[in-house]
Write a structure and sequence with these properties.
The protein has helices at about 5-25, 40-50, 55-70, 85-105, 110-135, 145-185, 185-190. It is mostly helical and about 190 residues long. The radius of gyration is 18 Å and the shape is globular.
Length: about 190
């Protein structure tokens, strides 16, 4: 199981908050060249942050950023509908997938299979809740059909998945570097464990 000292969790939490703020679309601090990191932030929060407040905290941050966009950017009105509530189970699914992976983590190549499995399952659940909820319950589409929904999924889901894999892959590389550096600096600790 992956457990980190609190000071490391605070640092990672701060990094994830910053990443969410600078990559969330349509608000005052957006960086237009970076893909949205929301999916990865929820997954990585599930992996690294053991506090039970992490999930509600990131959900609240998402709401604050989206609310600020609603009052400052005209296009954001399209997304903020009654279907917005579907983001709660969507992001929670990613967080839960991250928590599940944290319980199956060990520093080995064998960890890649549970990592990839949890990413795909979490992403699929998130996409069904967020896009499915928006498509069927937002009132933004005159006629909704499952055929059109799946056609939209074939177009949009790979883009969201690409962003999730980019940020998670970056986190895997950084995590690996830190573990290897720790093993080099503290060989006695690693030999006794």
């Amino acid at each position: 199981m992956l457990t980190l000292p609190l000071r490391h969790q605070y640092l990672i939490g701060t990094i994830l908050i910053t990443l969410m703020i600078v990559t969330r679309e349509y608000h005052f601090a957006s960086l237009h060249n970076l893909p949205g990191a929301s999916w990865a932030v929820f997954f990585l929060a599930g992996v690294y942050l053991s506090s039970s407040w992490a999930l509600p905290g990131f959900l609240a941050l998402t709401w604050v950023l989206d609310a600020s966009a609603y009052f400052t950017v005209a296009e954001s009105e399209f997304c903020l509908t009654t279907a917005y509530a579907f983001l709660l189970p969507a992001y929670s699914a990613l967080w839960a997938a991250g928590r599940w992976f944290a319980t199956h983590y060990r520093f080995s190549w064998q960890a890649l299979l549970p990592l990839f499995s949890s990413l795909i399952i979490g992403a699929a659940a998130c996409e069904l809740f967020s896009s499915g909820g928006f498509y069927f319950f937002s009132g933004q589409f005159a006629e909704t059909t499952f055929t059109e929904f799946w056609q939209r999924e074939l177009h949009y889901f790979p883009l969201y998945l690409q962003s999730l894999l980019f940020y998670t892959g970056t986190a895997v590389v950084i995590h690996t570097l830190f573990v290897l550096i720790h093993k080099v600096r503290h060989p006695r600790i690693n030999a006794s464990s």
